[in-house]
């Protein structure tokens, strides 16, 4: 039951309670509308484009709402129901206001906040925090009950934790592997890990130790290492990001968080071979081309010379035949290799004898005979080591985020219990 006598005035708690509720409704509407764009397009036949950078889009819209909520929490603590005296209000709020300004400057300098919107959110969240603590210790029971004050304390901590955690997050998985990742992966945010190799990543060294399939998920193990005084590696912890395989709905890439007191190390897979039974030492197609007798073909930094074709028939049956390509490979560093892959037809079946070249980690395959005279189709394969691509982010102070949620729920429970007891007393009187 809200007092109605002075509710038409702006300088009343009931008016600012209405403003706060309106801000929350507008914030929720923006989220609901934006996330419903695909539904609107499907139902109405429109072509509204969803945001490209989703995180930046919601941050840009929701941060002003967060600032307003923080300021409202800080201000309305010191406003009574009904009519208020402005001089009394400013005397009550002065301590929290000045303390918030001073601490905001100190925190901004320490953490290096430079963006104006981050500075505003920092001040608003600290103002909400200090005014709530002031309410609990100086004005407890006079201006607000304990339950709502504790909930406001949780909300203030939540706003502060979101700012400190996500504005100060650090992506440490810069690609130091020497392999190019392509246009789909940022070189400064993704790291390619070949199984067994150790690479530097932030304050750690990391290595891809292996994978395991449990029937639903492929679990990948990434060991985070450091070096001792003698330069030897020792394991600090292991991270186990996974991929949930789902052909119908799409695969789900599940991150793994290493939780500690001051920070979380958050790792997930951005690319991996999802074969549930991979073949060790498997080869990946590097190049396919047609080549005629007497021709020379460039294969990476090497020269492949096709000298001759040797044909041998009547292996077992009249229709059996073996065709061998007599080739020479000249490497860029001056080495020469004789290569003779074969194409075989035996009992009506096509078979091949590939030529493995361990020195270059390559395999040469006689794919088929071309329609053109004295021309064949060759395939060059490269030994493909098992690897994954990971992204690792450090979130500082994220435990403050979880603590704020606990504090908020505790305040909600205290308020609910107080209200429930009050209702029981009223029923007993009646």
Sheet of most strands? 6 strands, antiparallel
Distance between the termini: 19 Å
Query: What is the residue-mean pLDDT, rounded to a whole number?
Result: 88
Number of helices: 7
Report the principal-axis shape.
Answer: elongated
Instruction: Please tally the β strands and state the result.
Output: 21
Order of helices and strands: HHHHHHEEEEEEEEEEEEEEEEEEEEEH
For this entry, what is the oligomeric state of its chains?
single chain
Q: What is Rg?
A: 34 Å
Low-confidence stretches: none
Walkthrough of the structure:
It is a single chain. By secondary structure, this protein is of the alpha+beta class. The protein has helices at residues 13-35, 37-44, 54-76, 86-111, 116-137, 146-167, 398-429, and strands at residues 170-171, 191-194, 198-201, 204-213, 217-227, 233-239, 242-244, 252-254, 256-259, 263-272, 283-292, 296-299, 302-313, 321-330, 336-339, 342-346, 349-353, 355-357, 362-369, 375-383, 387-396. Strands 3, 4, 5, 6, 7 and 8 form a six-stranded antiparallel sheet that branches. Strands 12, 13, 14, 15, 16 and 17 form a six-stranded antiparallel sheet that branches. Strands 1, 2, 9, 10 and 21 form a five-stranded antiparallel sheet that branches. A hairpin with a 2-residue loop joins strand 3 (198-201) and strand 4 (204-213). The chain is elongated and about 110 Å long. The two termini are 19 Å apart. The mean pLDDT is 88.
């Amino acid at each position: 039951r809200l007092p109605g006598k002075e509710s038409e005035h702006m300088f009343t708690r009931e008016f600012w309670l209405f403003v706060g509720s309106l801000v929350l409704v507008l914030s929720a509407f923006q989220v609901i509308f934006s996330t419903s764009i695909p539904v609107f397009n499907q139902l109405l036949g429109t072509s509204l484009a969803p945001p490209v950078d989703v995180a930046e889009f919601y941050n840009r819209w929701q941060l002003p709402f967060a600032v307003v909520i923080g300021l409202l929490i800080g201000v309305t603590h010191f406003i009574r129901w009904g009519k208020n005296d402005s001089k009394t209000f400013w005397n009550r709020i002065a301590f929290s206001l000045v303390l918030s300004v001073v601490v905001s400057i100190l925190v901004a300098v320490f953490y290096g906040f430079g963006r104006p919107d981050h500075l505003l959110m920092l001040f608003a969240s600290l103002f909400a925090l200090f005014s709530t603590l002031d309410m609990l210790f100086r004005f407890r029971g006079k201006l607000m009950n304990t339950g709502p004050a504790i909930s406001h304390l949780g909300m203030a901590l939540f706003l502060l934790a979101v700012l400190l955690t996500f504005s100060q997050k650090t992506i440490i998985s810069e690609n130091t592997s020497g392999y190019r990742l392509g246009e789909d992966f940022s070189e400064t945010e993704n790291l390619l890990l070949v199984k067994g190799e150790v690479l530097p990543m932030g304050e750690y060294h990391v290595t891809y130790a292996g994978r395991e399939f449990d029937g639903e998920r492929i679990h990948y193990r990434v060991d985070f290492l450091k070096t001792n005084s003698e330069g030897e590696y020792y394991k600090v912890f292991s991270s186990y990001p996974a991929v949930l395989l789902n052909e119908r709905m799409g695969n789900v890439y599940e991150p793994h968080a290493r939780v500690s007191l001051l920070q979380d190390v958050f790792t997930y897979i951005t690319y991996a071979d999802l074969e549930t039974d991979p073949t060790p030492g498997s080869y990946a197609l590097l190049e396919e081309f047609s080549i005629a007798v007497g021709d020379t073909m460039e294969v990476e930094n090497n020269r492949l010379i096709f000298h001759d074709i040797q044909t041998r028939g009547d292996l077992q049956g009249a229709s059996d035949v073996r065709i061998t390509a007599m080739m020479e490979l000249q490497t860029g560093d001056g080495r020469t290799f004789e290569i003779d892959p074969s194409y075989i037809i035996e009992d009506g079946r096509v078979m091949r004898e590939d030529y493995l070249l361990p020195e270059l980690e390559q395999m040469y395959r006689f794919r088929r005979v071309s329609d053109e005279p004295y021309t064949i189709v060759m395939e060059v394969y490269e030994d493909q080591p098992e690897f994954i691509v990971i992204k690792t982010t450090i979130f500082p102070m994220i435990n403050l985020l979880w603590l704020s949620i606990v504090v908020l729920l505790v305040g909600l429970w205290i308020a609910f219990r107080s209200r429930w007891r009050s209702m029981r007393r009223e029923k007993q009187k009646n």
